[in-house]
Amino acid sequence: MSLQRTLSIIKPDAVKKNVIGQIYQRFEEGGLKIVAAKMKQLSQSEAEGFYAVHKDRPFFSDLVKFMTSGPVMIQVLEGDNAIAKNREIMGATNPKEAEAGTIRADFAESIDANAVHGSDAPETAAVEIAYFFSTVELT
Ligand code: RTP
Ligand code: MG
């Protein structure tokens, strides 16, 4: 077991559905602690920068448009193996393939509007946390 931090984003579709509290409950029940959080309307350049790894993918412009379509809720989650644990709680990228009881199975509409983001590795978690939170916002 290793104590990790990961970056989580509740995407505009789930914020619009008013299920932030229900999603936070999934994190807490899964043993993840919310150690920092902010609600934010992403600008186009903030969304493009966040998803820069996908800039050459065909879905990039739709992804940026979606991520800027309304406010998002951004949090840092901490716990044992938090990166993999969060992705387990989230479920598969495509909600049609997500296991029953996962966030995406229960709250997501489509592969585009899929409710949540979670970092996929320790290196990306560190970069993504620093992208949205300064050191004074993290204790
Ligand atoms: P995320 O980064 O948002 O946590 O999702 P993920 O790791 O499960 O998926 P990733 O491959 O990183 O893709 C980032 C987001 O791009 C959208 N996407 N659309 N139309 C498509 O084929 C497609 N593939 C990916 C999804 O919204 C995905 O969450
Ligand atoms: Mg990803």
UniProtKB/TrEMBL annotation:
It is found in: Cytoplasm. Residues 3-139 form the Nucleoside diphosphate kinase-like domain. One of its GO terms (biological process) is CTP biosynthetic process. It comes from the Bacteria. PANTHER family: NUCLEOSIDE DIPHOSPHATE KINASE, NUCLEOSIDE DIPHOSPHATE KINASE DDB_G0292928-RELATED. Keywords: ATP-binding, Cytoplasm, Kinase, Magnesium, Metal-binding, Nucleotide metabolism, Nucleotide-binding, Phosphoprotein, Transferase. ATP binds at residues 11, 59, 87, 93, 104, 114. GO terms for cellular component: cytoplasm. This is Nucleoside diphosphate kinase. Its main location: cytoplasm. The keyword Cytoplasm applies. SMART domains: NDK (SM00562). Its cofactor is Mg(2+). It comes from Marinicella pacifica. NCBIfam families: PRK00668.1 (NF001908). Homotetramer. Belongs to the NDK family. InterPro entries: NDK-like_dom (IPR034907), NDK-like_dom_sf (IPR036850), Nucleoside_diP_kinase (IPR001564), Nucleoside_diP_kinase_AS (IPR023005). Its EC number is 2.7.4.6. It is an enzyme of class 2 (transferase).
